[in-house]
Design a protein that fits this description.
This protein has 488 residues and is an alpha+beta fold. The protein has three domains: 297 residues, BirA Bifunctional Protein, domain 2 (2-Layer Sandwich); 62 residues, Herpes Virus-1, CATH 3.30.40; 95 residues, Rossmann fold (3-Layer(aba) Sandwich). Helix content is 32%, strand content 28%. It is built from 15 helices and 26 strands. The protein has a nine-stranded mixed beta sheet, sandwiched between helices. Strands 23-22-24-25-26 form a five-stranded mixed beta sheet, sandwiched between helices. A three-stranded antiparallel beta sheet has the order 4-9-8. Helix 2 runs antiparallel to helix 9. The longest helix has 20 residues. The mean pLDDT is 90. The structure holds one RNA strand of 78 nucleotides.
Length: 488
RNA sequence: GCGACGGUCGUCCAGUUUGGUCUAGGACAUCAGAUUGCCAAUCUGGUAACCCGGGUUCAAAUCCCGGCCGUCGCACCA
């Protein structure tokens, strides 16, 4: 059974990921490290993302700061909207989201942005008590999910970014000019974001410090259906989950039937689906779920979550948000910069709208591991069926025995390949044991150097999933590996 | 953040009820040597742990208190 526990166990045993600072007893929840194997998988995932999304669509990529000034988050709305009013019980310490709690108890609609004084007044007026123990509340306070940092000796107020996209927004003007941009322009970034989660849980699934890969598509809102390259993806099958029912539909039909608002949104959602299908996720266990109004982020006008089914239920991997001009208009207003650009197709000035694909990398890695985990009961083995592009090791190189010159021959082949391919040399233990160890970390191939190698310069290549073996020439190894890696 | 339960080698578990025999044991994994040589073979030897801090006691893995972490439930999830 592929469960969270079995994947977690493998991750700990094989160095995929593990808790941060674990040798100290005051290690904090919500922080995890990628070990050597996990780092390779993560890097491979990001490289595949670059290949299948950025290069395919000629996107540009930046790498921005993680600490950003206060004004950025005034403009983005995070200082207001990212802050929850909290009621804390004096007696048992239970905390409640103040606005929702008051609404729930009194039936009154309470705006989220109510001041602390007004909240305390309502609490007194209705004589609200703690739901757990009937205790009285402290004065209401605010909890901000952003990590605040102090810069320099004057302790200038700044924040760790809670989403990577803000750097793309604030850099937009310069990027557009220096890169001779034209709408639609997709700008991508991979990096860390930070959120002070109240209850981080389940290792990579809810972290306080986590990786995002975000793509922000700047577009002319009047030309969302003027997108010739949509032709390339119009037949892509998408699973749309709307109003509690799933439908499998082509990108073109989805636009025609109004399930997706326009070609631009459909185009990028199609690219995203194509990318994930290459990571080894089981696509029949994924869907784009349309968010209802009360689920949407405060900046989104249309929102789909790309979700994957795991042993814990459906998990959000990617937020696909049509953010309209929310971000650029706010940044333009607060920074007093003009962020309009010219659309040369009709020489009009526009403030671009933004459609974003905001991917959670850590969750994606976990989901790929879980979907790849396979217990082969017949052969009594655990196999991680990672695709070659994601696997931390592409091929293991094993001398069948260490005598008769086989060790030296194997080391020679290893040296020949190691600069160009992720290979792994191993001569310890029986050959079967080495195969087992290799497939447990998802390596799809093994090359075995045997006595015949010494006579005719061929090796066996063993396929992880079928356990079948073939002989290939040593001089052909690179060609065979290239074919595998570069397969479409 | 609240509540319940839990935390012992890399992993899984025994030991805690009833403090002493625990100098903490086993299995798997791992390392070295021997032997074998195409699917986790065998033998020998080794490395390796009581979450942290305080308390009770002649004596603490074991009892008590606090912290941290984990699982689950509630709440939260921009």
């Amino acid at each position: 059974m592929k469960t969270y526990e079995t994947v977690m166990k493998l991750a700990l045993e094989r160095g995929f990921y593990f808790p941060s600072c674990e040798i100290y007893s005051d290690a904090l929840a919500g922080f995890w490290e990628y070990g050597p194997t996990g780092t390779k998988i993560k890097n491979n995932f990001i490289e595949l993302w670059r290949r299948e999304l950025l290069r395919r669509d000629d996107m540009i990529e930046i790498d921005g700061s993680q600490i950003m000034s206060r004004s950025v988050f005034v403009a983005s709305g995070h200082l207001d909207n990212f802050t929850d009013p909290i009621l804390k019980c004096k007696n048992c310490g239970s905390t409640f989201r103040a606005d929702r709690y008051i609404t729930e108890k009194t039936g009154k609609d309470v705006p989220e942005l109510l001041s602390g004084n007004e909240i305390d007044k309502l609490v007194n007026q209705y004589n609200l008590k703690c739901a757990s123990c009937k205790g009285t509340f402290h004065e209401s306070s605010r909890f901000n999910m952003m990590f605040k940092v102090e810069i320099g000796p004057s302790k200038e107020e700044a924040y760790l970014r809670p989403e990577t996209c803000q750097t793309i927004f604030v850099d937009f003007s310069r990027i557009f000019k220096t890169m001779r941009g034209r709408l639609p322009l997709a700008v991508a970034q991979v990096g860390k974001s930070f959120r002070n989660e109240i209850a981080p849980r389940q290792s990579l699934l809810r972290l306080r410090e986590f990786y995002q890969a975000e793509i922000e598509v700047f577009c002319n809102p009047n030309r969302l259906n003027d997108l010739p390259k949509f032709e390339q993806v119009k037949d892509t099958r998408l699973t749309l989950f709307i109003d509690n029912s799933a439908r499998d539909i082509s990108a073109q039909e989805a636009v025609e039937q109004g399930l997706l608002p326009n070609k631009l949104v459909a185009y990028y959602m199609s690219l995203l689906a194509m990318f994930y299908s290459r990571t080894g996720l089981s696509m029949e266990r994924t869907r784009f779920r349309k968010l209802s109004d009360d689920e949407k982020a405060f900046y989104a006008s249309t929102a789909f979550d790309f979700e994957v089914e795991t042993s814990n239920g459906w998990l959000e991997l990617v937020a696909c948000n049509y953010r309209s001009d929310y971000d650029l208009s706010k940044h333009a207003a607060i920074s007093k910069q003009n962020l309009n650009v010219i659309d040369p197709s009709n020489n009009t000035k526009v403030l671009p709208h933004i459609f974003e694909l905001s991917m959670g990398i850590d969750r994606s890695i976990y989901s790929i591991l879980e979907h790849s985990y396979y217990e082969d009961l017949e052969s009594d083995r655990v196999v991680l069926k990672l695709v070659p592009q994601i696997a931390p090791i592409l091929v293991g190189i094993f001398p069948l025995v260490t005598k008769d010159g086989l060790r030296e021959k194997a080391q020679e082949i290893h040296a020949m390949l190691k600069l160009d391919y992720p290979v792994f040399y191993d001569e310890s233990g029986s050959i079967g044991r080495r195969y087992r160890r290799l497939e447990e970390v998802g390596a799809p191939f093994a090359l075995t150097i045997d006595n015949q190698t010494m006579n005719d310069d061929t090796v066996t290549i063993r396929y992880r999933d079928s356990m079948k073996q073939e002989r290939i020439k040593v001089s052909d190894i690179a060609k065979v590996l290239d074919t595998i890696i570069k397969s479409k």
